[in-house]
Amino acid sequence: MAAPTPQEETAAGDGRSAKGFSVGSVPPRVWVGLALLVAAVVFVAQNRDATEIQLLFISLTAPLWGTLTASVCVGLVIGLLLRPSERRKRKGPKR
What we know:
Strand content: 5-15%
Number of helices: 4
Largest sheet: 2 strands, antiparallel
Shape: flat
Helix content: 40-55%
Radius of gyration: 25 Å
Number of strands: 2
Strand order of the largest sheet: 1-2
Order of helices and strands: HHEEHH
């Protein structure tokens, strides 16, 4: 019997294509990104109800998922604004 060709090995189901792709060759950050995308889609699908939002004298109705997403974005902006600057990090502590 002759040794199997690369096409025959791929057809045998070893999980690799002709270009050498395998599930293990996908970087972990891609898997984390896909998991977060799936979680976001499920989150939006389950939180489509409208909710009333009040800020001082303004009142409006918006989807719950949009309201929560906007709150997270505001929190991220606040966190970025309160972060120490790059210049301060490079200088180090004063003596």
